[in-house]
Amino acid sequence: MQNSSEKRNNSKVTSFAVIRTILIIILVGVIGYEAVMIYRDQTEYSVAVNEYEEIRDTYVDIKDDNTQKGASLWEDAYPKLDIKFQALKDVNPDFVGWIYFPALSKISYPVVKEQEIDQYLYKTFDGTSNRSGCIFMDVLSDENFCGLSDMVFGHNMKNGSMFGSLKTLYKSENKDVLKNSPYVYIYTEDKVYKYKVFAYYTTTRGSESYTEVTDENVYDEYINYIKSNSLIDVPADIKFDEHPSLLTLSTCSGKAGSGRRFVVHTAKVETFDR
Description:
Helix content: 25-40%
CATH architecture of one domain: Beta Barrel
CATH class of one domain: Mainly Beta
Largest sheet: 8 strands, mixed, barrel
Strand order of the largest sheet: 3-4-5-6-9-10-8-7
Number of strands: 10
CATH topology of one domain: Sortase, Chain: A
Distance between the termini: 97 Å
Structural class: alpha+beta
CATH superfamily of one domain: Sortase
Radius of gyration: 25 Å
């Protein structure tokens, strides 16, 4: 017969075995859950990438007459994109323009104007629920891209889509990426706006980087704040005393939930009639 000491030892062994089994089950469950979430995210990313590639193929053409003659596509005042605006509005009436950032060629997307905060944070251009979301203009910005300071948001996707390629600007190996092409273009139905990048830096959610610029005094204070934080020298050829319209591109930075943001500030330098 087992004595009481042996019974206690056997009981402890049994308890440890049960606890270990429970922990293993929990661990397997966590790993399984994470695997499902990763699979879901990757599937959604692929769906979003395919959707936007199809949009570009269907609704946007590059007029390559100059290219055929051996000239650079960007020798003209702006890249010639033939965009089917009405067809895009038929897909989504919140469509307000097309953004194109040649230095980061992955950034070529339709822009929508949100009607309520974070309306398009997890919704693609055609309204599909998707964590990749859409490139969207802040609810307080001017849908004609003529406000003192307008703001456009996009996710920092690991695959480089949406605004995922913005992070390459501050990587040392890409420090000259803007040297030959520091411009961002916004195409509306009757205008093309040419913006020049003049600052970028990492900030936090809710910082002064997201100031609502309501008048020229606030504008001047905002520019001073940007200059004090910029990781690059602000180009001397941009005359801020003339209060050119600003366009800020914003995306997440660092780990999810950290509240860190990366912003790229641009100033409107030319306007062209389409």
